[in-house]
Amino acid sequence: MTILPIVIAPDPRLKIKAKPVESVDDGIRQLMDDMLETMYDAPGIGLAAPQVGESCRVIVVDVTSEDEERNPVCMANPELSWLSDDDRPHEEGCLSLPEHYAEVVRPEAIRVTYLDRDNVACELEADDLLATCIQHEMDHLDGILFVDHVSALKRNMILRKLTKAKKLAQK
Ligand code: NI
Questions:
Q1: Global pTM?
Q2: What is the CA(146)–ligand 1 centre distance, in A?
Q3: Which fold has domain 12-170?
Q4: Of 14, 19, 17, 56, which is closest to residue 34 (Cα–Cα)?
Q5: Coil, helix or strand at residue 80
Q6: Bridge partners of residue 43, in order along the sequence
Q7: What is the CA angle 10-13-17, rounded to 5?
Q8: Half-sphere exposure (CA, 13 Å, Cβ side) for 3?
Q9: Cα(97) to centroid(ligand 1), Å
């Protein structure tokens, strides 16, 4: 498994709609495994393929805490099939927007259909942090970042700081 470089915002690769996967073959499985390795190394609780420069509809998540056994979930072509009426606010972060956080309100529970690591069609019902995380990662597949859910004022402030940090890193 390989730790992949993470694309940092602002970057046009984070703003495009990713293409569906035809089937979960060895290449996609490799990508899923590398994404998990990259996510655990960061460390983070979710990662979407566009964040490692791959424009395909693949996400990985694991919201278990450090002292629990790992419980990775790999999804290709995830689609929401149900959303709860109840909402859940959460202070979100993102490996592509390091050190920035903002409260985002999303449905508290979801049902999602997807292809798993073995190319089997699955449906998962999730709530709480797992539901928030899956929705955050699915947003990435449509070129949406968590800052797109907050006020323009806050979004522009965060993106300005990230642009500045990028320029400093290039010097
Ligand atoms: Ni993210």
A1: 0.97
A2: 7
A3: Peptide Deformylase (3.90.45)
A4: 56
A5: strand
A6: none
A7: 120
A8: 7
A9: 7
